[in-house]
Amino acid sequence: MLTVTNLSVSYGAINAVDGVSFAVPAGAIVTLIGGNGAGKTTTLRALSGLLRARGGSVTFDSADITRLPPHEIVACGLGHVPEGRMIFANLTVDENLAMGAYLQRDRQRIAESRDYVFGIFPRLAERLRQSAGTLSGGEQQMLAIGRALMGRPKFLMLDEPSLGLAPRLVGTIFDQIQEINRSHGLTILLVEQNARLALEVSSHAHVLETGRIVISGPSTELRTDPRLKTAYLG
Question: CB–CB of 159/44 below 8 Å?
Fold first, then answer.
């Protein structure tokens, strides 16, 4: 569904992503692993059009989206849950979800999307009129994912969904990510510093270091790879 070829992104003279290539098959969960500054978030931001690629190409669902603006990429079916959640803190839960559906025009489909989100995250239905900024960290992460799902994406990018969450909530969030993949057939590209957890839920993984992919393979194999065990798995 997604093919990234020789993607490069720069911040001035600094090459944050340098010739990255990988593919994500339809229906899969694929993860990008790496430490701080490895280029994971920059890669996702380039894929969703928030950063302009210096070189390379991105093909999504057989269409070249490399130079498209973000709102057109969303319209193609690619959703992005950013690092740090980036919810609209001064809006209610209901209003945040409505923002996620801003490209949708069919009221019935919007209502179906809301019901689907509430089925996965029932706590959001309980907090519907509550200001999003008053939610707990776990609830805000649920809202960020729910907001993206309101756009009815075919492909979902998740950037550090476990960041800042209590361990018991991390398990809940990742259970729901797997459920979204299984029940909705949603293809997922996951960026996650918790390498052990990322390898448990994904089928394939790529390890980024200083803007380049240095290791790739099936997640089951990488779990026992001595290079990963030393650097990321402890």
Answer: yes
Nearest CA to 193 out of 220, 164, 213 is that of 164
What's the residue count for the chain?
234
202 three-state secondary structure? coil
CA neighbor of 222 nearest in space, from 192, 195, 194: 195
pTM for this predicted structure: 0.92
78 three-state secondary structure: strand
Tokens of 142: 């649920």
Question: Tokens for 183?
Answer: 């029940």
Q: Read off the pLDDT of residues 95-119 as tens digits, 9 standing for 90 and up.
A: 999 999 988 888 888 899 899 999 9
User: Which tens digits make up the pLDDT trace of 31-86?
Assistant: 999 988 899 999 999 999 999 999 999 999 999 999 999 999 999 999 999 988 89
